[in-house]
């Protein structure tokens, strides 16, 4: 069972890669690079404040407590 990852990688190493040399046209090769523009800063609007974070922590702790009370043996 430990040799299975080795065989998967060995099988992937035996694949042949497609020839890409002639697949790009001269027009596409000579095209200019696209301009790079920066994205607006979206993280500034999504910063939770202390009240939101405390509410989320309390909700997650309550959910964890409910999950701890589930008797898994009874479900089987």
Give a structural overview.
The chain has about 80 residues and is mainly α. The protein has a domain at about 50-75. The chain is built from 4 helices and no strands. It has helices at about 5-15, 25-30, 50-70, 70-75. The radius of gyration is 27 Å and the shape is flat. It starts with a helix and ends with a helix. The model has no long low-confidence stretch (mean pLDDT about 85).
Structural class: mainly alpha
Backbone CA Rg: 27 Å
What composes the largest sheet?
none
Please work out how many helical segments DSSP would assign: 4
The helical percent reads: 40-55%
Number of strands: 0
Secondary-structure element series:
HHHH
Strand content: under 5%
Shape: flat
Mean pLDDT: 84
First-residue to last-residue Cα separation? 29 Å
Low-confidence stretches: none
